[in-house]
Amino acid sequence: MKILLVEDEPGLVSVIVRGLTDAGMEVSVAVDGNTGLEMALGHNFDLIILDIMLSGMNGIQVCKELRKTKKHIAILMLTALSSTENIVTGLNSGADDYLGKPFKFAELEARIRTLVRRSTSGGHVASKSIFINDLEVNTDSKTAQRNGKNITLTATEYRLLEYFILNTNKVLSRIQILENVWDIDFNIGTNVVDVYVNYLRKKVDSENQIKLIHTVFGMGYMMKEEMEHEN
Q1: What is the DSSP letter of 83?
Q2: Model confidence at 125, in pLDDT bands (50, 70, 90)?
Q3: Residue 222 to residue 172: CA distance in whole angstroms
Q4: Dihedral angle at the C-alpha atoms of 117, 119, 123, 125, nearest 10 degrees?
Q5: Angle between the 155-166 and 192-204 helix axes, to the nearest 10 degrees?
Q6: How far apart are CA 26 and CA 17, in angstroms?
């Protein structure tokens, strides 16, 4: 597997190159956007790991240029800017997936293998997948997986899960959830939100040690990775 890493942080480059090489992959490195684009256009790679914040051309610009000719290459974007807006901008520029910094190397390797497998089995990966920990939500196919296992969801459960993952680390009130998932802009006086959150927890969290859906008492709910010190 041939990987092009376009990244300008020497420490991170060293870690990624060492880890991927040990995993049996061949890694080439570019430390700025212009060089990265030139290397990507001039050689054949199975996947490109592309940082957003680069000197010269930034990652978004590089990705857009690549997609004009390299339509089928898998692109994984690295970003320290993990807001929903920046994630959507990256995906809309043509990236197949994103990974927020800092990240665990095991997750990076898993993302790489998944993207390459998809791209080689069916052309360009057009999926818009969003991840938190080992949960993947695909906003094109309206499907979800956790730890590689499919999660069977009703239409309402999917809309609720998508709303949560698009607003990771944000406290969402019940009214906000009603407005965005049920299109109701007032409190309907029932516990429908609580009921569906419980449904979702059973499917997403019950069989996993790391919990992702959390209650913020007196305020609503939040999707986030459970910290190690949490019970």
Answers
A1: S
A2: very low
A3: 6
A4: 130
A5: 80
A6: 9
